Amino acid sequence: KQEVTQIPAALSVPEGENLVLNCSFTDSAIYNLQWFRQDPGKGLTSLLLIQSSQREQTSGRLNASLDKSSGRSTLYIAASQPGDSATYLCAVLPDSWGKFQFGAGTQVVVTP
Amino acid sequence: DTAVSQTPKYLVTQMGNDKSIKCEQNLGHDTMYWYKQDSKKFLKIMFSYNNKELIINETVPNRFSPKSPDKAHLNLHINSLELGDSAVYFCASSQGPAGTEAFFGQGTRLTVV
Q1: Which whole-number Å values give the CA distances from A16 to A56, A63, A112, B65, in the listed order?
Q2: Chain B residues touching residue A102 (CB < 8 angstroms)
Q3: CA-nearest residue of chain A to B89?
Q4: DSSP classification of residue B84
Q5: How many CB pairs under 8 A join A and B?
Q6: Cα separation, B10 vs B95, whole angstroms
Q7: For a Cys-Cys bond, which of A87, B12, B43, B81 suits A105, CB 3.0-4.6 Å?
Q8: Residue B4: pLDDT above 70?
Q9: Cβ pair B42:A44 closer than 8 A
Q10: Are residues A44 and B104, on separate chains, in Cβ contact within 8 Å?
Q11: Percentage of residues in chain A having pLDDT higher than 90
């Protein structure tokens, strides 16, 4: 059974620092991996989708890497801003049937 | 214009009642999902429909019944609500089940008292 772990559970950084968020999964046979952010009381916003054949994806200040063999993905957020404060969720798709397995998330606070 | 919208956003109801949550997507996707986020913030899939057909049905009490009248809508009906049903329910959609980007609604916070 696929298990997804996100460490740390919470992170606080001063504005301007780079953020590094980790996601690990137990079964390397994945279809894709998606990073989301969740603001309090809000839904999930898709940040990046990495297909199993890809090593990384970039969007603006965000960069996500994928290493299937070691069961890891890392989300980098450059030059963090207070608006980046949110919970970041990693979700792994273990097959083609849309059954995402989510991690518990990393709660990020960026202080001005 | 909201891509995946759920109504209501908040729902407070008494034990034993029956309630429904509605979901609509305007992205032209053919696959829709219901996820449940419990008090520990874990998100778990409940159901998935592809072209109005049920393709994922996790171990969910049969008090929960999804209904997809068309590809753009997936409603969730819950009978005989229990305290343990209190959670945030998220609707999501994607283009096909096969690993394309999923988009989520804003969630429905259900509180059973």
Answers
A1: 23, 16, 9, 47
A2: 42-44
A3: A43
A4: G
A5: 66
A6: 28
A7: A87
A8: yes
A9: no
A10: yes
A11: 81
